[in-house]
Amino acid sequence: MSVNIQIDSPIEYLKGVGPIKGALLKKHLNVQVVSDLLNYFPFRYVDKSVFSKVKDIYISTEYILLKCKISAISEEGQGRQKRLVALAEDETGVVELIWFQGANWLLQLLQVGQDYMIYGKVNFVKGRISIAHPELDLIRDPNNLKAQLGYQAVYSSTESLTAKGLGSKGIGQIIQNLFQYIHHSQIEEILPQYIIDKFQLIPRYDAFKKIHLPKSELDIIYAKNRLKFDELFAIQMKMFLSKIKRQRQSKGYLFIQLGDYFNDFYKNYMPFPLTQAQQRVIKEIHHDMHSSYQMNRLLQGDVGSGKTIVSFLIMLIAIGNGYQACIMAPTEVLATQHYQTISGYCEKIGLKTCLLTSQVKSKVRQNILNELASGEIHIAIGTHALIEDPIVFHNLGLCVVDEQHRFGVEQRAKLWKKAKNGNPHVLVMTATPIPRTLAMTLYGDLDVSIIDELPPNRKEIKTMHLKDIQRMQLYNFMKEQIEQGRQIYFVFPLIAESEKLDIENLTLGYEKLLQYFPLPKYRVSIVHGKMKSASKESEMQLFVSGSSNIMVATTVIEVGVNVPNASVMVIENAERFGLSQLHQLRGRVGRGADQSYCVLMTGNKVSLDALKRIETMVATNDGFKIAEADLEMRGPGDLDGTKQSGLIQLNIADIQEDNKILVAARNLAEAILNKDPELSNPLNIRLRNQYIDEEDNSWAKIG
Ligand code: ADP
Ligand code: MG
Fold first, then answer.
1. Of 598, 620, 642, which residue constitutes the final position of a domain?
2. Atom 17 (ligand 1): residue with closest C-alpha?
3. How far is the CA of 560 from the centre of ligand 2 (A)?
4. What is the pLDDT of residue 694?
5. Ligand 2 centroid vs 167 CA: distance in angstroms?
6. Does residue 677 have its Cβ closer than 6 Å to ligand 1?
7. Quick check: helix, strand or coil at residue 426?
8. Quick one: pLDDT at residue 419?
9. Which protein residue has the closest C-alpha to ligand 1 atom 4?
10. Residue 270 CA, ligand 1 centroid: distance in Å
11. Is 584 in the pocket of ligand 1 (CB under 6 A)?
C-alpha cells in the first residue's frame, strides 16, 4: 500500500477501501477523493471516554461502556430462537451479551479470558443485565487504555452500505486510517493569520482531526466552530466577490428615461392605482437600471401583492429605452395567464408580444423566433423554453423571472448568454418570503425589494381544518358558496415519486365530487400536469371565464394563477403539503372583494408535525410568519425549492443555529473586500490564492 496519499487522491487508494468499497462510497455517499471523506462529517458522537463498572448499572442506565473479561460463550435456543450468549465480567459483577445473528464468525472471533471494551444499550431480562449486539473492542494494551478511549464519531450510512462493511463503524475506521497518511502540511491553512487570531480559531488540520477523532467534548466544539466558520465565510466571500465582479465587468444597459410607453400606459390605462409599496419598488428598480451597473434584484412580495403589474411597468421602461424584455414563468399555465394579462395591456399601447412554451411548434415557433431576432416582438412571455439555445433576441435588456424558487442557478446563467453585448438586467420575483438570515446566505449577491402591502380591500382569508368525518360539512359549505356565485379550487397533492398514484387519487376525487356536484346544476373542471396541453387549456378557460364552479387540480395552480371570483380553496390531504406550499395555494384566493376561505382537509388522524403546520395556517395569513415557522420546523435545507435550485448546500453549518457565526463571517468578508477588493494586500495572500484567478485576474474561480 502506497503511503503517498494526497488530499485529492481517489478514495480507493486508501487502506481498507479498494475498488469495491470505493465504488460504493462514490455511488451512495458521493465520496470520490480523500478530501470528500474528510468532509464527510459525523452527525453525532458517543461518549466512550470513561468506563463504568457493572455494579454501577441502574434500572435507568441506557448506554454504557464497560471493561470486562469474557468468561464463557455458548449457543442457546433452536431455529429462529437461536442466539449466541457470552458472559462478561469485571470485579464487580456479570453481564450477558447476546447476539441473534452472526454467531458463526463471533464464535471464531471472541476469545474467552480476554479483556474487551464493551459498549451498548442495557436491558434487564429476567433479573439479569444484558446487552444485545454490543460493540466489542479487544483491549490491545491495558497500560495504554487512553488510546482507545474518547468520543466516537457516528456517521450516517445506509443499510446496503452497512452490509458491505461501510456502516458508521466501517467509515470511522477508514477515516482513522486516513489520518496516518494525511499530515499537517496537506491540509492547507486557508485563512489569514489575523482572522484566525481574531476569532480564536483552531488550525484547519486540527479541526478536521478533531471533528472525526475527538478526545473530549471541547474538541468537538472547537472543531465545529472552525469548520462552520470556514463554510460560512467562503460563501460570503464568493457572494461579495461576485457582486464586485458584476458591478465592474458588466456595465449595465442604461435605462435613463421612463419612456413613452411607460408614460402612455401609466397616464391612460392603469387598471387600478398602485399601492404605496408598488410605487416604492418601481422607484428602487428604476434607480438600479440607470446607475450603469447590471441589476440583479429580488422582488419579494406575498401572494397577491401585485408583482405582475410592477414587472410590466418595468418592462415598459426597458422598451422605452430601446430594448426588448421577457418574462419567464415556471409553468405553462402561469405563462399563459401572464400572456393573457400582459398582451391585453400591450394592445392598448401598440406593443407586440408573444407566448413561447415548449408546446409552440413548427411554423408558429419559427415565426416567433424570427421576430424575436429582428426585434419586432417587444415582450416575450414564456416558460424556460425562452432560454433554450436556438432563441436569439435582437437586444434583450431585461429579463423578469417569476417565482424564482422554481428556477435554478443554471438557468439564470443561461440567460446571460441571451444578450449580445453586456448582460440584461434581471428581476427575480418570488412570493416565498425568505427569512432574513436565509436571504443573507442565499441571495447575498442580490439586492432585495419588498412589497409589504396588499392591494386595498383584501380581506383576511378564513382558514379552517376539517377531518374526513366532517366531509359532508365541507360539501354543504361548498354548495352554499356556489349558490352565492363563488368559485372553488379543489387541490390534490402531487408528489413526483408517486405521480401515477397521485393522478389516480385525483381522478377518483374528481369522480366523487361529480356525484355530489352533478351536471347540469354544477360544472366541475379538472387540470393536471399529465393532461394534453389543449384540454388543460380549455378546462382552465372554463374556470377562468366563470362557467365552471369547481376546479379540481394538482399543484399546477400553486403559483400565479389569478381568478378573482374564486374565493374558496379546498386542499385535500393537507397533511402532505409543506407549510410554504400551503400558503402559496391559499394565496390563489382572497383576490376579489368577497370573503375568502381556505379549507384544509386531512384524514381523521394527523401526525403531530402535520398538525403543527395546519395550526399555523389556521392561525395566521402572514407569509413572513409562515416562512419563519417553516424554517423552524423543517430546517432551511427543506425550504421549498432551495435545495433543488442548487443555490446553496451547507455541509456543517446550520443557518438557524449558527446565525451568529454567519453574521460575523458576513461582516468580516464585507469589511475585507471593501478595503481590499483585489485581495492584493500581502496579509490576504491566502484569500487571494483561493478566490482570485491570477491568469486573467477575473475572479474566474468563483461560480
Ligand atoms: P402576485 O404578487 O401574487 O403575482 P398578482 O400580480 O397576480 O399578484 O396580483 C394579484 C391581483 O391583485 C391581481 O388580480 C391584480 O390585478 C390585483 N392588483 C395588483 N395590484 C393592485 C392594486 N394596486 N390595486 C388593486 N388590485 C391590484
Ligand atoms: Mg404572480
1. 620
2. 306
3. 4
4. 64
5. 47
6. no
7. strand
8. 64
9. 307
10. 12
11. no
Supply the CATH number for residue 597's domain: 3.40.50.300
Whole-angstrom Cα distance, residue 501 to residue 523? 25
The answer on 66 and 17 residing in a single domain is: no
User: Does 335 lie in the same domain as 442?
Assistant: yes
- Centre of ligand 1 to C-alpha 402, Å, is 14
- CA 583 / ligand 1 centre spacing (Å): 17
Q: Which of 148, 170, 194 is the last residue of a domain?
A: 148
Protein residue with least CA distance to atom 22, ligand 1: 455
Note the ligand closest to the C-alpha atom of 327: 2
Smallest-distance ligand from the CA of 305: 1
Q: Are residues 593 and 474 part of one domain?
A: yes
586 lines ligand 1 (CB under 6 A): no
- The contacts of residue 504 (CB under 8 Å, 6+ apart) are none
Regarding the beta carbon of 581 and ligand 1, being less than 6 Å apart is answered no
Same domain, 295 and 421: yes
DSSP code of residue 164: T
Output the CA 430–ligand 1 centroid distance in Å. Answer: 14
For the record, the C-alpha cell of 685 comes out as: 495572500
Beta-bridged to residue 325, according to DSSP, are 379, 398
CATH number of residue 56's parent domain: 2.40.50.140
**36 lies in the same domain as 172:** yes
Is 681 contained in some domain?
no
Ligand 1 neighbour 588 (Cβ under 6 A): no
Same domain for 169 and 142? no
Element (H, E) at 136: strand 135-138
The percentage of the chain sitting over the pLDDT mark of 90, rounded to a whole number, equals 50
The three cell numbers of residue 49 are 471516554
Distance (Å, rounded) from C-alpha 615 to C-alpha 623?
Answer: 14
In short, whether 591's Cβ falls inside 6 Å of ligand 1 is: yes
Domain count within the chain: 4
Q: Is there a single domain that holds both residue 292 and residue 419?
A: yes
Strand 63-76 to 83-90 pairing: antiparallel
Strand partners for 401: 328, 428
Of 423, 50, 436, 453, the C-alpha closest to 250 is 423
pLDDT along the chain (703 residues), means of 10: 76 90 92 94 88 89 91 88 91 93 81 92 88 88 78 88 90 93 89 96 96 93 96 89 74 88 97 96 91 82 90 97 92 83 95 92 92 96 84 91 62 65 82 67 72 86 96 96 96 69 82 94 88 82 91 70 88 89 86 89 92 94 81 57 47 82 91 94 94 60 39
Instruction: For residue 27, give its domain range.
Output: 1-46+158-185
